[in-house]
Amino acid sequence: MAANPFFMYDQAALQMANGNIDFAADSFRMVLVGSGYTPDQAADDAWSDISANEISGTGYTANGQAIDISTSNPAARIIMFDGPDQSWASSTLSGVAYAVIVRDADSNGALAGTDIPCFCSELEDGGTVSTTNGTLAVTIDADGIYRLSLTVAA
Q1: Considering the entire predicted model, what is its pTM?
Q2: Mind listing the pLDDT tens digit for each residue in 116-127?
Q3: Are 104 and 28 in contact (CB under 8 A)?
Q4: pLDDT exceeds 80 at position 154
Q5: How far is Cα 46 from Cα 49, in angstroms, rounded to an integer?
Q6: Residue 54 pairs with which residues in a beta bridge?
Q7: What is the mean pLDDT of residues 98-110?
Q8: What is the distance between the alpha carbons of residues 23 and 101, in angstroms, rounded to a whole number?
Q9: Quick one: average pLDDT of 104-111?
Q10: Which DSSP string do the residues of 66-129 spell out, in sequence order?
Q11: What's the confidence (pLDDT) of residue 74?
Q12: Which residues, at least 6 apart from 15, have a Cβ–Cβ distance to it below 8 Å?
């Protein structure tokens, strides 16, 4: 399934600007979140703001799965964040509403409450996705996870 456009959480943008998130070197995880979560781009600044809504089910491991994030410069004053499609094969999951990419600060695969959420995508406009011994796939858009446009301050 093609993911809707991702947004970047404000805290991730701030931490990136301050040099505390390095998309080339840090570890990230894509986590599936249920419909009980209401994304708040400005206020959700830690995994603890989201973690209670992480889904569970057959074929899905808590804390999601690792995803490599790359950056490129496809056009003037554009930075593109990209990553490979993700899938959970032979899964039985219900109520999946969002894919959230979280920085795993200590790279151990177990997200801490203070880990920073970076990007979020609603998987089904206003609805949820389920699988029954099937594959839940999150297909990243050809234009990447997120594009940051750089403009000159006036």
Answers
A1: 0.95
A2: 999 999 999 889
A3: yes
A4: no
A5: 6
A6: 33
A7: 96
A8: 12
A9: 94
A10: E---EEEEEETTEEEEE---EEEEEEEEEEEEEEEEEEETT-SSS--TTPPEEEEEESSTTS-E
A11: 87
A12: 21, 116
Asked if the model's pLDDT at residue 1 lies above 80, the reply is no
Token pair listed for 65: 């799965």
Q: Output 73-79 pairs: Cβ under 8 A, ≥24 positions apart.
A: 77/149, 77/150, 77/151, 78/147, 78/148, 78/149, 78/150, 79/147, 79/148, 79/150
Closest CA to 81 of 3, 6, 150, 2: 6
What pLDDT score was predicted for residue 75?
85
Distance between CA 97 and CA 75 in Å, rounded? 32
Q: Strand order of the sheet with strand 70-75?
A: 70-75, 78-82, 146-149
Between CA 122 and CA 5 the distance in angstroms is: 8
Secondary structure (H, E, C), 4-70: CCCEECHHHHHHHHCCCCCCCCCEEEEEEEECCCCCCCCCCCCHHHCHHHECCEECECCCCEECCCE
Query: 43: closest CA among 22, 21, 17, 14?
Result: 14
Report percent pLDDT > 70 for the chain: 99
* Mean pLDDT, residues 48-67: 97
